[in-house]
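User: Please look over both lines:
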Amino acid sequence: MKTVEAEGHTIDEAIENALRELGVDRSRAEIEILANASKGILGLGGKKARVRATLRPSLDEVAARASEAAPEAAPELAPGDSGEEVGRRARQVLLELLDKMGFSSEVAVEAGENGLCLQIRAESSGLLIGRHGQTLDAIEYFVRRIVARDFGERVSLNVDCERYRERRRKSIEEMAVQAVEQARKKGKPVSLVPMNARERRIVHLALQGIPDVTTRSTGEGEFRRVIVVPVKERSKGS
């Protein structure tokens, strides 16, 4: 992973200089502030702000490394041992992938509500998670594909890092509740920020038991979002 350090008269300027050196925009880099700018005494002895920027792996790079981690042949299963073997194989694939990506990490296999969960512990967790979990989602997708190919069936498998999924779920649920309050107060639909399919589902499930609002999705691709609609507004056909 490429890392650069840069200075500037302000933190923002230092970040801009670091991103320029990496040749990427803000979403592709993890920023660490090393020092704030200081003016010194009577204009003397001042110091510039300094930051360290580390390039996040792109989704294409994650895909390529996941393919490299794929085995030549699927393992043979003993009767009644599929669940344990799937977890063991998924952990192996994930560790190989993380190693090829340059991450030193540990992976634990846990039983979750939605199947097996591979829980990652790593120092560079921010890089692994990516912006709004995009890198983590890509890693999960390719681990699922490889494991499903090995065993010839669809597998219920999730990949998490430092409990990010749980923190993100709680944040989205809080956002959804706030949207309900706004919709009630204004008496008209409230649109949430764009989300991926996993996050939109969290909103729908969190609000499905509330009688005076309903939810619907609108938009395309990465701009698709959930709209919270008051029941009275919906009954008017809006």
